[in-house]
Amino acid sequence: MADLAPWLEELRKGIPDRELRAAYISMSENWREGDGTTKTSGVRAVAYAEARMPATVAAMEAVLGQLPQPKAPLSVLDLGAGTGTVPWALSGAGWQVQQGYAIEKDLNFLEAFETLTQPFPEWQMAAGDICDIPFPQAEVATASYSLGEIPKDKLASLLGKCRQKGVHTFIVTLPGTKVGYQRLLTLRDIFLQLGADIYAPCPHIKACPMQVGDWCHFSRRLPRTRLHRLVKGGDLGFEDEKFAYLVAFFPESWLAQAPRPQGRIVKNPRVKKGETTFEVCTASGTLAPKRIQKREKSKAKVAKKLSWGDPWPWNEEEESSI
Known about the structure:
CATH topology of the largest domain: Rossmann fold
Strand content: 15-25%
Order of helices and strands: HHHEHEHEEHEHEEHEEEEEH
Shape: globular
């Protein structure tokens, strides 16, 4: 399996550390001010890749890990490909790609993509706006943190166009924020209107049961390299990437034949003496606290290995709510 770190080192060759750090600080300030459309320079694209790509790859890889793998290599359309998150995540998750087609409108990002995805010659690139550019037939469409600012009418048109091009499975990651969650709900509505089903994280297609002020998201811990810490200015040797995601599918997808999760753990488990309580989004469309007591030895053994984001292994008849 290829290792991303040496390629990130290759990408930043000749750029002083202080310049990378300054470029990332500038980008971060733009984002905090709500300017997500700021044009990148070559250095900014490199700084973005160094600072964010390990986390975006980890998030997408975590999502892929929740899905049964297809048996045959796939054709993949990556919408808003950035600097190459999806090819690396698919490789890390052990998925096979027959043909990949990446669309990115930022030419500096696309140049970084070309360098960073050299281990994956099955990928082709195209420069353009994902809402306007023609693209080829594909089986799977992916979008890593790229659908957050597209107007709803354009978003519906884009997803409909993907469907017309044969896409039967959509895998989307978004920031694990309240804003990211609201965009996820918009996407979910569009997919259901198109006739799709939802595989994950939702175990149902009913209204999201999250209470007002709360939001569905997950977390992935990843180690920080020296370069990663330098660009982001952090001291810790790890970071926790918060993300939201959605996997939608149509009848042609391999997911249509796969067993469906009975529920999804949507919070960190609460452990106290003698029992563990899990907050579970259930197949009936409700949020329910589920308690496993230590004396239930067979269940407790399974529950000990469960964490935030995992599918719930029991159906609602086997495990009742508190």
